[in-house]
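User: Before I run my own analysis I want an independent prediction to cross-check against. Here's the chain; please return only the C-alpha cells and, at the end, one sentence I can use as a sanity check.
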Amino acid sequence: MCSARSRGSERTVPQVIVGAYEDAATAIAALASAGGKRPAAVLPRAAVDDEARVRLRQAQVECLSTLDDGDLSEARRLAAALAEAEGWERADGAPSPAGQSEPGDVIGWYELRIGSGALTTDRPITRLHGSRRYIASFNLLGQARLNQACGDLLYRGLMDEGVALGEVFDVVVCSESKAVGMAQVVVECFGQDRYVVLRKGVKNYMPRHPRAPLVEEASSITTAGAQALVLDPLDWPLLEGRRVLLVDDVIATGGTARAARRLLERAGARVTAAATVLLKGPEPDLPRLVVLARPLL
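Assistant: C-alpha cells:
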C-alpha cells in the first residue's frame, strides 16, 4: 500500500478485529464477515507456512503468530493481550487464558506487508517499556537487503506521486540512525550523492564557530528519556534556501518528524515533501506525505 495524503484530507483507520485460530483456512472463514473492519488472525507458529501466508494475504487478513513452540492456547493468549492493550475487537469470543508476558519479552510475530505486499518480513512483537502498548519492531540496522528493498519501494512510491528531484525537492534529509541506510538507497535512486543526516547529539568534532550546531528537542515512543536532533554546521550550506524531502523509516507519534521540520526551518530550509515506510499513528502535518504501509503494530 502506497498512498499520499491529499491537502486537507484525513484518513479513517478501520477498527481491528482479531481472533486466534488453528490454521489459515479457519481464520479466513471466521473473519469473512468482518464488515469493513480490519481482520487479523493469530495462529500457532507451526501453522504459518508459505501456503497459509499466501491465503491470508489474498483474503486481506493480517497474519500474526506465536513463538515457535506456541499452540492454539498460546495464540489465544496473544490475541487477548493485543486486543486488551490496543483496543481491538475480539472475533473468536474465547476467554482470555491465564498468564501474560513480561514487558520487553518477545511474545510473537507479525507479518509486515510493505508496498501492497511487494515486500513482507516477520517482525518481533514486544511491549514497550513503561507502557501497556505493543510494537512490532522494525529495525533496519544491520539489514542490507531490507534497506535496499525499502529504499527502492520508497523511491517508486515517491515517483508515482510526482515527488521528483528538482521539481519538488532539492535535498534529502533523514534523522539517525535506523533510516540512514534506507535513505542512502533513496538518494542513490534519485542520482544524488550528498544528503543530510540529523544527528541525535552534539559531537565534539562539530564546529562551534562561526556557527554552532543547531539543536531541537524531540520525542519518540521508541526512545527512553529526552532526545534532541542536531544539525552539524558543516551540513548547513546544503540546506540554506533549499527544498527538503524528509525521509524516515517509521512515523509513530510524529514527534521526531515535527522536530526535524522545525530544525530545518531554523536552518533556512523548507520541507516540501516527506516519505516513510511505516505510519503507525495519525498522519502528521507534513506536505505531500508518501506512506508505504500502515501496520497494525
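Sanity check: The chain has two domains: 3-136, 144-293.
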